[in-house]
Predict the 3D structure of the following.
Amino acid sequence: MPSHGGLEIFRLLIKAGADISMRDDMGITPLHQAARAGDCPILDMLMQHGADVNSQTKNGRTPLIEAIAVDSDRKPHLLVTTMLLERGADVGLTSSDGRTVLHEMASMPQKRLNELDINVVSLLLDNGADPTARDHNGQLASDLAARESNTKMVQVLERWGME
């Protein structure tokens, strides 16, 4: 959960001229971290100050991919995803293994899938995510969803892929 103190620290750092695009040794920026944490106030502040919504880590992960990253202890962040898309996040960028944000979403284990997750998939598709894109292993997002027994996600992806 985001803290008010963290937001104030970011305000002070930005005011002091801190580089909001600074990367760690993996290429992770503060925007990647805020997206992954679901910290909307910090995410918004960083974007207002010019943070690159399409910045990629060394393995090609974008803030958008981080926003929906598959972790066992949390769900995708619909609001963060929406904020990034509104600022021009590119749904077609791929990670080093050729996966788009849609591939990452489709890899979510079925037991974690809920209606909110389907809403995120629909949002990605509405914003140009390509359900026919293949990763470096030749897999479609629907292939990954089927592997995870995500029947509802497979249906949504296949319906979009036929349009």
The chain is about 50% helix and 0% strand. The mean pLDDT is 87. The first helix runs from residue 4 to 15.
